[in-house]
Amino acid sequence: MLKKLILVLFVLAPLGMFAQDKFAYVNAEEVFSKMPEMKDVESQILAKREQIKKTADGIQAEYNALIEKFKQTDSTQLSEAIILDRQKQVGDLESRYETYLRSSQEELEKLQMSLITPLQDKLRKAIKDVGDENGYTYIFNSAALLHFGSNAVDAAPKVKAKLGITN
Question: Rounded to the nearest 10 degrees, what angle do helices 38-72 and 80-134 cross at?
Answer without folding.
Answer: 170
